[in-house]
Amino acid sequence: MVNVYDPVTPLPKDRLEFQNRILKGRYKPILDLYPRSTQNSKRRSFQKNWYDIFDWLEYSDASDTAFCFPCRCFKGNEINSCYSDTTFSKKGFKSWYRAIDAFKKHQLSKCHLNSVKALNDFIHLKSIDCVLDKNRLKEISRKEKDRLKNREFMKRVIDIIICLGKSGRPFRGHDEKSDSCNQGLFKELVILLTKYDIVLQNHFQDVQKNALYTSNRIQNDLITSIKNVILQNIKNSLKNSFISILADETTDVGHSEQLSIVFRYFDDEKNRPVETYIALKQMKSVTAQAIFDVLHEVLILMGKDWHSVLSVCFDGASAMAGKIGGV
User: Fold this and answer.
1) What are the domain boundaries of the chain?
2) Each residue of 13-28: pLDDT tens digit?
3) Of all helices (H) and strands (E), which one includes residue 264?
4) Which residues form the TTF-type domain (predicted)?
């Protein structure tokens, strides 16, 4: 889950929430090992000592990119309207092999100097809203605390979902009433962890019954979000990579035709070829055209096209590997 203070997270629209975010300062995660990528034939990565050299520098561990805190906060300021370069304010910088030169050049730019001035002015000038209504600032602070508490709770729920998903276990029970002896694995695990975890205990003590976040709808929304994050991570690792497609069609216990799809490609970070499971698709038909259409759909989903496919690997079935009518 992306940290709420990570530079890739959109800044708050509300003025008081925005002010609260500004006062938190730049985001500086300290990692034991930053992601490495091949640049100019060498393995390079972000360096944590850069934080001390450049007091405006931020790092996004979600996207492995560097940002400028003042420029990110005030890129929409009128004084910067004529500057089109958004590398340090929106896109993120990742060319580590020339980082020092790029950072020095950026901090001398007119856009950066304008943003630093705007940041200092914003910090030292009290918001009129705060002067007129201090209670509103307290309310914002309370909401921020509630949001952080909810995030800690959701982390535990997401871990439970990932655990059940990885092991292929069913989530829901036939009878999920509070007096049921078996409410299903999802709820039973939540109940079990609540006995030992203070965050879960506080959540269920403080919230209303309509905000428990354990319903099947919330669970399915979280599963979809996890799926989207996984797919995005795979898409990021596939950038500029040639791939091989491995696919096989089988029939499940319900006699439904399914097509499993795997991509093989070279992973720059791991510095070796990897095989990644991409999808399991339900098939309405097992003709060569139907299988091709599904493969094409998955390629588009992953941001690839057939020009990036080096090879395909199927079994010996005629629909898959036939010389004339095969995929």
Assistant:
1) 15-131, 134-221, 240-321
2) 877 788 888 888 999 9
3) strand 257-267
4) 42-146
